[in-house]
Design goal:
single chain; 479 residues; alpha+beta; Spore Coat Polysaccharide Biosynthesis Protein SpsA, Chain A; five-stranded mixed beta sheet; elongated; membrane; Nucleotide-diphossugar_trans; Glyco_trans_2-like; transmembrane helix; polypeptide N-acetylgalactosaminyltransferase activity
Length: 479
């Protein structure tokens, strides 16, 4: 926030209109740089005189966050921008008076007065993301609200496709595709898997799953239905947003809003919307069971007044493909416990490593009094055919990963898409990696674990799981 304060004051103070030739030049430069224009779009439906309100939280840390949005729109579309300035923490006097929040007030407001289509809203105290967005939505008067985070850019013609879907059906909530901008050279990269449906696991983490064949379009640029959205960037008919009750003001921080719109922070969502399915959350996150969700009376009343269907209906009719990737009841694991190497007598160990860190061999812990399931030598060969730290009921979110036939075996974010994280535990006790066509090997001298050409007769390529499920293993190996 302090950096955004500094950036904003420099932009507004040093690009004063006195440096421009005339008011038209001021307006032109402002439009190109600060994302402001002023109201029409005719799509498949009628969106004439359409005001699109763009709500942004100003925790900006880069000039790129102020570029491209409006200049990428067709000239025929106009809209106005609501800038939400969240009350900051007391500033550190690193940059003297430039860091003072007070310094942003009158100079900023005087400059913005030149542009009547821009409104600045300030909170008197830190309200958090959800209530701040609600403040902006309450001030919006246009037919469509477009919510954007401030750390994003837009490409050419980004807005009309969003408005088009709402013009066809006012109850449609539309999300743009979100690509990644490389932090080194700013090139565009698609997210892993490119276009995918939004989903969730049963710890309430947002996930993405492939579009099933029956929902795939002939033209990959065509929109597709998604049961859940990421939550940060979307467009919605303003009246429909309020008919749905807006955001739950009891959501304090980021982490619940992606479910709020789809099926209206964690326990509040579960208690109001998930019916008997909430139990699956509590089974995995027992600390939530006795956590107070606050007063959810108003949210439950809203659900009733909207005549919402059950969450079972949602899972059956809307998110019917989700259990294939994130089943409410976890299928049995193929193997679990320690993974002991036959040749060395040592065990695979994470050493509490961070993502990207290699697995290591260490002296086996079992039998030395440290038998807790959260120790560094407990792993689960899951029903997804990946290997994760933790016991079957408490696996972690990173997996054994290998990128080549000679690479180290590292821990990487689990993506549940097989690939580099697919393993086969064969009858000869080797851990085979189909993508690289190699097997997991190790070195007793330096305790490394790495991939190597398969040699079933080599004891350093033979691994013993503490517990195995022969039925599941046979199923895996028959695929």
């Amino acid at each position: 926030t302090l950096l955004s304060t500094l950036v904003i004051i420099l932009l507004f103070h040093h690009r004063h209109p006195s440096g421009c030739e005339n008011s038209a030049e001021v307006e032109r430069k402002w439009k190109a740089f600060l994302l402001v224009t002023g109201a029409k779009h005719s799509a498949q439906g009628d969106l004439e005189n359409q005001n699109v309100i763009r709500i942004m939280s100003l925790f900006i840390s880069s000039l790129f966050l102020l570029v491209d949005l409006v200049s990428a729109d067709p000239p025929s579309i106009s809209h106005h921008l609501i800038l939400l300035k969240i009350c900051s923490y007391p500033p550190v006097h690193l940059f003297s008076s430039l860091c003072l929040v007070e310094h942003l007030k009158k100079p900023l407001e005087d400059y913005m007065a030149l542009f009547p289509s821009v409104r600045i809203l300030r909170t008197k105290k830190r309200e958090g993301l959800i209530r701040t967005r609600m403040l902006g939505a309450s001030a919006a008067t246009g037919d469509v609200i477009t919510f954007l985070d401030s750390h994003c850019e837009a490409n050419v013609n980004w807005l009309p496709p969003l408005l088009d879907r709402i013009a066809r059906n006012r109850k449609t909530i539309v999300c743009p595709m979100i690509d990644v901008i490389d932090h080194d050279d700013f090139r565009y990269e698609t997210q892993a898997g490119d276009a995918m449906r939004g989903a969730f696991d049963w710890e309430m983490y947002y996930k993405r799953i492939p579009i099933p064949p029956e929902l795939q379009k002939a033209d990959p640029s065509d929109p597709f239905e998604s049961p859940v959205m990421a939550g940060g960037l979307f467009a919605v008919d303003r009246k429909w947003f309020w008919e749905l009750g807006g955001y739950d003001p009891g959501l304090e921080i980021w982490g619940g809003e992606q479910y709020e719109i789809s099926f209206k922070n964690l326990k509040r969502v579960a208690e109001v919307w998930m019916d008997e399915y909430a139990e699956h959350i509590y089974q995995r996150r027992p600390e939530y069971r006795h956590l107070s969700a606050g007063d959810v009376t108003a949210q439950k009343k809203l659900r009733s007044s909207l005549n919402c269907k059950s969450f079972k209906w949602f899972m059956t009719k809307i998110a019917w493909d989700l259990p294939q990737f994130y089943p409410p009841v976890e299928p049995p694991a193929a193997a679990w416990g320690e993974i002991r190497n036959v040749g060395t007598g040592l065990c695979a160990d994470t050493k509490h490593g961070a993502l990207g860190s290699p697995l290591r061999l260490e002296s086996c812990i079992r039998g030395r009094g440290e038998t807790a399931w959260n120790n560094m030598q407990v792993f689960t060969f899951t029903w997804r055919e990946d290997i994760r730290p933790g016991d079957p009921q408490h696996t972690k979110k990173f997996c054994f990963d290998a990128v080549s036939h000679t690479s180290p075996v590292t821990l990487y974010d689990c993506h549940s898409m097989k690939g580099n994280q697919l393993w086969k535990y064969r009858k000869d006790q080797t851990l085979y990696h189909p993508v690289s066509g190699s097997c997991m090997d190790c070195s007793e001298s330096d305790h490394r674990i790495f991939m190597n050409a398969c040699n079933p007769s080599s004891p350093t390529q033979q691994w013993l799981f503490e517990h195995t499920n022969s039925t599941v293993l046979e199923k895996f190996n028959s695929n």
